[in-house]
TrEMBL record:
<keyword id="KW-0378">Hydrolase</keyword>
<protein>
    <submittedName>
        <fullName>Taurine-transporting ATPase</fullName>
        <ecNumber>3.6.3.36</ecNumber>
    </submittedName>
</protein>
<dbReference type="GO" id="GO:0016887">
    <property type="term" value="F:ATP hydrolysis activity"/>
</dbReference>
<dbReference type="InterPro" id="IPR017871">
    <property type="entry name" value="ABC_transporter-like_CS"/>
</dbReference>
<dbReference type="GO" id="GO:0005524">
    <property type="term" value="F:ATP binding"/>
</dbReference>
<keyword id="KW-0067">ATP-binding</keyword>
<dbReference type="InterPro" id="IPR003439">
    <property type="entry name" value="ABC_transporter-like_ATP-bd"/>
</dbReference>
<keyword id="KW-0813">Transport</keyword>
<dbReference type="Pfam" id="PF00005">
    <property type="entry name" value="ABC_tran"/>
</dbReference>
<dbReference type="InterPro" id="IPR050166">
    <property type="entry name" value="ABC_transporter_ATP-bind"/>
</dbReference>
<keyword id="KW-0547">Nucleotide-binding</keyword>
<dbReference type="InterPro" id="IPR003593">
    <property type="entry name" value="AAA+_ATPase"/>
</dbReference>
<dbReference type="InterPro" id="IPR027417">
    <property type="entry name" value="P-loop_NTPase"/>
</dbReference>
<feature type="domain" description="ABC transporter">
    <location>
        <begin position="15"/>
        <end position="250"/>
    </location>
</feature>
Length: 278
């Protein structure tokens, strides 16, 4: 068993020896070169786990989420959700990205209902579900507004409600709070934890922020670059709810250890807990 794999039956996502190469043209001439973006990446994610991925720029975080979402195909290896191989995009995975990706011509409610329309759900049912998720993200009073009338934090709440509305098994989040100011970011982190507790989704969250990864997650995965590969996994055994946890010595110690891993100051895979079969 490799370091990313777990031994119990609650595995939701299994990433098995994933490799992704891109073909790049050289600047001069017609030569092409293979570039390895992800190499031999294996990782299991538990049902209802909140797992964050950090790593240096270009280590393959977004490439991995693209593969998970089914928007691109691995060169070799595979990703399995509930033992079923990912072979393209599907509604079992919801995606929330940094740029909100809202439809500007649709109201907030119509944005949230988009996936339900794609599913062919009748209007009344759509309305009930969108109402439930607008309330969950605290935007019920803004249902008839349009994206241009919202703040960045509100847009991101709409994106989260939209992704959750069609009840995906897994939520994939790529730097969702990266464009927000520090205060809004912390508010949305708490909101996301509340939503996660209420929905019990499995969440994979990509971020550049070690602080954000620790605050949110059950485990933090560190990738290294060139080629992108799994470096370390840190279980985050801090109490939940996490309010006030940033001031504790354990939090600061985890921050230091993950930063050391990220900056290559420790040997790979030397600092992994072995508590629960990982
Ligand atoms: N379509 C593509 N063709 C060629 N190379 C690509 C392509 N997509 C990504 N890459 C390369 O693969 C590597 C991983 O890219 P990726 O965007 O996944 O990194 P990342 O970890 O998400 O980076 P960042 O933190 O800067 O967002 C990079 O070197 C990137 O240039």
């Amino acid at each position: 068993m490799s370091i990313g794999q777990i031994a119990d039956k609650s595995v939701k996502i299994s990433v098995r020896v994933l490799n992704k190469c891109f073909t790049r043209k050289r600047e001069k001439g017609n030569n092409v070169k293979q570039f390895v973006a992800l190499k031999d990446f294996s990782l299991d994610v538990r049902e209802s786990e909140f797992l964050s991925i950090v790593g240096p720029s270009g280590c393959g975080k977004s490439t991995f989420l693209d593969l998970l979402s089914g928007l691109s195909e691995p060169t070799s290896g595979g990703i399995y959700i509930d033992e079923k191989k990912v072979e393209g995009p599907a509604l079992d995975r919801g995606i929330v990205m940094q740029g909100y990706a809202l439809f500007p011509w649709r109201s907030v409610r119509k944005n949230v209902e988009y996936g339900l329309e794609v599913k062919g759900m009748p209007k009344q049912e759509r309305r009930e579900i969108s109402q439930k998720f607008l309330e969950l993200v605290g935007l019920e009073e803004f249902a008839e507004r349009y994206p241009y009338e919202l703040s960045g934090g509100m847009k991101q709440r709409v994106a989260i409600a939209r992704a959750l509305a069609y009840d995906p098994e897994v939520l994939l989040m790529d730097e969702p709070f990266g464009a927000l100011d520090a205060q809004t970011r912390e508010i949305l982190q708490d909101e996301l934890l509340r939503i996660w507790a209420a929905t019990q989704k499995t969440i994979i969250f990509v971020t550049h922020s070690i602080d954000e990864a620790i605050y949110l997650s059950d485990r933090v995965v560190v990738l290294s670059a060139n080629p992108g590969t799994l470096r370390d996994i840190f279980p985050i055994e801090l109490r939940r709810p996490r309010d006030g946890v940033r001031l504790t010595p354990d939090y600061l110690e985890l921050t230091r250890r993950i930063a050391d891993s990220l900056h290559g100051k420790t040997p790979p895979s030397q600092i992994i807990h072995n508590g629960d079969g990982i």
